Structures are given as structure tokens and as C-alpha cells.
Amino acid sequence: MLGSLLVRIGLALLLGFVALQVVVVAATLWNDGRPVVFRLISPRQAAAIADALEAASPSQQAKLLTALNGGSLAVHLQPAFADDGPHRVGGNAPYLEKLYGEYAAELGGRPFQVQAREGSALASLSQDRLGAPAAVRLLVRLDSGGVVVIEREPVLLHRLMARWAFVGSAIGAILVLILLFCIQQMVVPAHRLARAAKRLATDIDMADLPTHGASEMKMLAVAFNDMKRTIRELLQERTHMLAAIAHDLRTYLTRLRLRANFIRDPDQQERAIRDLEEMGLLLDDTLLFARQVTTVPADQQRVVDANEEVLAFVTMRRELGDRVDWNTSCLAPLPIRCSPLVLRRMLANLIDNALRYGAAAHIGTARRSEAVEIVVEDEGPGVPPEAIARLVKPFERLEPSRNRRTGGAGLGLAIVTALAEGQGGTLVLENAARGGLRAVLLLRPVPAAGDAC
Question: Does the keyword field hold Membrane (predicted)?
């Protein structure tokens, strides 16, 4: 999931948005090591205000207060402290101890308090909520009598953070979602192309990709569709060419078969006829594989019961005298979507391979989480692990001859692999635990309404 391009871009946008929010909040709330929400006027300003008020007459004090009040600053006089305790917001925070020391030095020994607007001191800065309406104020006792109260409203915090922070965050989140949606629309064609490229290996007749979206994706989809048509035409030309060659070769084989009947030596006649028959079978196998039967038209694919098909095929082979048996871990129907003709061809090739190399074929069926499993095991010596991968390649045989009595042309398992992939399945080869080769055919299951294994 984390490897998805959409997820990676989304995480990058989200982290960038969160980082931006953190920087904005930090820059707004913190300045010179002091939180802006609790920031007072400087000690020098406080001392200057106190000195000016002490030096002014009552009428001048009124004018001075009028001049000082405005913006974020509010200054007024009151008779005395609400109480005589040394109220100071923030407790014993190091930077506050330094700040309070500066106030004491600048105020020249005048008593002062730092309180919340309501008149009650806060025990700690962390107890106040970010954006709370309570402002912090400085109270200084004047030598001439009375107490000057200096308040600084956290205007920036209230008007920007408290009022607009939520709105800004919501707008930012909406923008991130819109960006993710736009990115998804750009990524979807890439996902569609990847799925189509994977499917092309088993379905050359798949529908063309839609050619809409960004210009680059349109060009890519058009190029993919053109490539698919070119590959399909090449395969069709190859199949037609091989079919024509096979037709002509069968004509010559028929002539040779007729001429072989005139061979006087019975032994030589039998050998010649047998060779011609093997040539015909080899030609049929080669043509079938060359056709790359990797897809079957939809009207030939239907839901069939794997157990029923396997049992019928095993019964037929046993009637022919072959050593074939069948067992299953699931007696309930095992519905799969497959062409019955293709399924029987795959079973025939696997059973023939098992009988040729192992004298007997043991067939089993089972239902797995994502596939229906058809297993064919033989009683042969098995295959070296490093040679198993070669068995599904065309014309690959561990026994180097092309004599069908010793193993055929090496196309049986290659044909099964091609047919299985055409049905949306796979063929897995491995050595059985009791010896011999184990061929596992995995086919697409169909959900069953009844008993499931």
C-alpha cells in the first residue's frame, strides 16, 4: 500500500500541510523565546509609563492614559492591588524568572504583579488554553500612590488564530483532498495501463484502453492499443502461416503413408508408418502450441464443476486400461469458470505425462482460498529441482530424443501452461513428497451458494 504513487503523493502533501501549520503556529505564538499570547510590554516600557504617570499631574495623567490606550495596549489606574500576594503567571519557568528579574530592575523596586485579566494569577502557562480570551496584565504600584494596570490584548492570536486558524485548517484540508482527487485522476490511467499490460500476456483480444485524460496518458493508451493490435496481427499471421505449412505437410504425409503400404518388408513398413504417425502427432502439437491458445472466447467459457469433469475423465481413462485414480478433500461441487474442452485437454496432457514417466497417475481436487486445485502426481523418479523450470518451455525434455515412446516432443506441459493461463489459471510443477512429479493446476473458482470446502 505504501508503495502506491497515490499514497506517497498524499503523504507528502499531508506532511507538508502539517509542517506548514506547525511553522505558522510556532511563528505566531513564539517570538524571542516568549509566547506571544502571554507577551507583556517590555520592562523598559513599563518603567517609562510608571515614571511618566508619577511625574504627571492628575489632569496630565488623564491625557497620558488617553494617549497610551489604543491598539493592543490598555492602561488605566486603580487604587491598589486586589491583594498583596506576589502573583506571577507561569510559575518558575526559567525564561519567566529572567523576565521578572528585568521588570524588578527597571521598575526600581516598585512592587508589581503579573495577573490574568480576571484578577486571579495563573499557576502555569500550560494551564491556559491556546487562544483563550484572557489577556495577561502587569500591575505596578506607583510611588505617588495608586496602581497602574497595563494590559496587552493578544490581538494577533484572537483575530488570526482563534478566529481564522480553524477556518484556515479546514480550507487547507479541503485543498489537500482536492489535490488528492486530482492526483488520483492522473494515477488511475497508469493503474489501468499496468493491469492491461499484465492481462495482455493472457488475453490478446482484450478491449482497447480508453483514450481520455491527460495528453501524455492519451498518447500512452493509443500506443498500447496500437502495440496490442500489431502483436495480435503478428500472431494471426504466424498461425495462418503454420496452418498452411501443416496443411501442405499433411498432404505429403498422406502420400508417404500410402507409399509406405507398398513396402514389402513388414518390419520396415511398420517402422515407416510409425514414424509418419509420430510426425503427424508432432505436427499437431506444434501447431496447437503455435496458436498460443491463451484465450478462449467468452461463449466457450462457462461454469463447470471441477469434481464432475475430473471424475468423468478419470472414469473414461480407467475404462481404457490406464492406471488412474482420483480422490478429493471436497465432495461438494467445485465450480470453476473454464472451457470444458480446454479442461479436458489439460487433464489429458497431464495424465499422459504422468503415465509416460511414472506408470500411474494419482489425481486430487481441493478448494483453496483463491483457487480450485487439480493435482496430478506420478510414480516416477521425480525431477531435479534445478530442471523443473525447463519442463514448461516448448521442446524442452530431460530425455533428449524426440521419440514419443520415450517422452514425446516436449510440448505437453508447455501446452498445458498456455491453456491454463488462457483460463486465468496457472500450472505449478514440484516434486511430490512421496517421489515423482507433482503438477498443480490452479483455476479460477466461482462462488458457490451451497456447501463450500
Answer: yes
- Spans of the chain, pLDDT less than 70: 1-6, 23-39, 84-96, 116-135, 153-166, 168, 202, 288-300, 395-410, 448-453
Tens-place pLDDT, residues 390-410: 787 776 666 544 444 555 556
Residue 292 pLDDT: 54
Domain limits of the chain? 40-153, 215-290, 302-443
**In DSSP terms, which residues pair with 428 in a beta bridge?**
440
Query: Residue 123 contacts by C-beta under 8 Å, 6 or more apart in sequence?
Result: 91
Q: Which residue has the cell 502555569?
A: 124
Give me the CATH topology for the region 215-290: Helix Hairpins (1.10.287)
DSSP-assigned letters across all residues of 389-436: GGGGSTT--SS----GGGTTTS-HHHHHHHHHHHTT-EEEEEE-TTSS
Contact 53, 174 (CB under 8 A): no
3 state SS of 128 = coil
Give the model confidence (pLDDT) of 134-160 as tens digits.
457 888 999 888 899 888 765 555 555
pLDDT at 413: 85
- CA dist 373 and 382 (Å) reads 20
Grid coordinates standing for 91? 510559575
pLDDT of residue 294: 44
Check residue 120 and give its pLDDT.
Answer: 41
Q: How many CB atoms neighbour CB 142 within 10 A?
A: 17
CATH class of the domain whose range is 302-443: alpha beta
- Backbone phi and psi for residue 120, each to the nearest 5 degrees, phi listed first: -105, 130
Q: What pLDDT does 225 receive? A: 93
Q: How many residues does the structure list for the chain?
A: 453
Distance CA 330, CA 328 (A): 5
Please measure the distance between the N-terminal and C-terminal CA atoms of the chain and give it in whole angstroms.
31
The set of residues, in sequence order, having a beta carbon less than 8 Å from that of 260 and lying 6+ positions away, is: 269, 272, 273, 276
**What pLDDT sits at residue 37?**
43
Same CATH topology for 215-290 and 302-443: the answer is no
Phi-psi region of 75 (alpha: psi -120 to 50; beta: other; left: phi over 0): beta
C-alpha cell read off for 47? 518603567
Radius of gyration in angstroms for the set of CA atoms belonging to the chain, rounded to a whole number: 44
